């Protein structure tokens, strides 16, 4: 049965590669967390800029709607000379 008796070369390589891969993943996660913490101020600034851009673009679209509505209302008005 597998797992009984002397360990085989393939079994040893399998477990070494398994634990090495697991260690690499853990180290990568730790490094990623360190990077996120160090870059936290940058990510906050980016999110602030995205919020600012969203607010600006919604304001501009509101303004353009107001301008387009104003233009159509002006076109509909009949000048006083023609009344």
TrEMBL record:
Protein known as: Uncharacterized protein
Species: Araneus ventricosus
Region: Disordered, residue numbers: 64-83
Biased composition (Basic and acidic residues): 73-83
């Amino acid at each position: 049965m597998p797992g009984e008796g002397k360990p085989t070369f393939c079994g040893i390589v399998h477990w070494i590669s398994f634990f090495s891969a697991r260690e690499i993943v853990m180290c990568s996660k730790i490094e990623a967390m360190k990077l996120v913490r160090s870059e936290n101020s940058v990510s906050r600034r980016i999110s602030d800029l995205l919020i600012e851009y969203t607010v600006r673009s919604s304001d501009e679209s509101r303004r353009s709607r107001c301008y387009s509505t104003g233009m159509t209302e002006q076109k509909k008005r009949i000048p006083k000379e023609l009344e």
